[in-house]
């Protein structure tokens, strides 16, 4: 290092002092991270619970424990944002607010996000390395999830529901008057049943089976191996049914559960990964979502698949 | 000055380490499950009628058909539909590498085609086996397969 002139040295010193005063002053602007009461903590085997507590609870419970490094502004601002949005999407302390089906769904989604390396967040484990989930711990979580799977053959309530829905569908006229529209403006697309399939899927975790189909643009993109990213105008539809399984393991589709849509328009849907998401539930095609921002739930689950353009399906060619 | 350079490099290294991505993406297309291009399945322009899983065998199948097949399946009149064309494609199941709790098509196992003559209504059955879909004329119990396929109810698709 060469000689610094007295004037330069004074400038550096002054800048340094102003910076320190500024940083000290910032510390007083602290959005509150409140530890709300625990209304119903998740119940799980001790080994599983221990992993959840150490790796997830700081952002996904009402028992956030901040380290000294977390308290420093501006890091604290980021921490506060993560904790509030983390709790909105998943809160193990308010587990009783979810239905049993929702609880199971959230657990499978959480473990899958861990398996995909998306959670716990790398910027969190950088400062909290003990929160990392080890491969052995991931195995514990997966083994626990497998104990939650329902292997029972279909009961009469399931088969009756499927049969009555089938009879109603048989007698329905082909023409529909008005197509349901989701709160983000995406319309139910009845054309999906004329598209070519991209794949099929068995979600044994929640007892559904699915056919995933693509419109012409989507199929052309698959055939040309140009799906990272998918082209604008591509539409992917996923139709879901319950599974009706007999004692011999033969499974057929039961009641239609929902239609999920993904419509690619990188500009229009930039805030949700370039995809417009919508869901229409039951054979009555009721649009899913309570607000126009419902699709943030969709993109949050799809987010770990960013390098596959947010699509979990690995299409096959016909 | 060297210390400064090392500090900058260390800072960038930490940044990359902190932002490290998950393992590299797999192939974009499910090649083992894909039908051979020479089979020209898509040229038949069939639609999806229904789908099935055999949990004991660990296989999954999709039933496709032409418009006559679709209409007759919905009406429960497959056995008497002249001009009907159906295809049952079967795959081995494999776990989805991107989602634990999900099984997807793995290796392509077979395609069974059923057609009924548009004049006589006579039903013919053809069996294509393996990933290369080689024609196998020695498939036993054809009548059983024909009945099985023609008896399947379509999936509700509103």
Task: Describe what you observe in this structure.
The complex is a heterodimer of chains A (318) and B (158). By secondary structure, chain A is α+β, with helices and mostly antiparallel strands. Chain A is built from 10 helices and 6 strands, in the order H-H-H-H-H-H-H-H-E-E-H-E-E-E-E-H. Chain A is 36% helix and 16% strand. Chain A has a 6-stranded antiparallel β-sheet with strand order 1-2-3-4-5-6. In chain A, a hairpin with a 4-residue loop joins strand 1 and strand 2. The longest helix of chain A has 21 residues, at 6-26. Chain A is globular and about 90 Å long. The N and C termini of chain A lie far apart (68 Å). The mean pLDDT of chain A is 94. Strand 1 of chain A pairs antiparallel with strand 4 of chain B, so a sheet runs across the interface.
Q: Write down the overall geometry of chain A.
A: globular
The largest inter-chain interface, given as chain pair and residues per side, is:
A-B, 67 and 52 residues
Q: If you average the pLDDT of chain A, what whole number results? A: 94
Helix/strand order of chain B: HEEHEEEEH
**What structural class do you assign from the helix and strand content of chain A?**
alpha+beta
- Which parts of chain B are unreliable, with pLDDT below 50 for 5 consecutive residues or more? none
Radius of gyration of chain B, in Å, reads 24 Å
Mean pLDDT of chain B: 91
How many strand units of chain A? 6
Strand order of the largest sheet of chain B: 1-2-3-4-5-6
Q: Care to count the β-strands of chain B?
A: 6
Multimeric state of these chains? heterodimer
Helix content of chain A: 25-40%
Q: Into which percentage range does the β-strand content of chain B fall?
A: 25-35%
**Distance between the first and last residues' Cα of chain A:** 68 Å
Distance between the termini of chain B: 70 Å
Can you summarize the main beta sheet of chain B?
A: 6 strands, antiparallel
The portion of residues forming beta strands of chain A comes to 15-25%
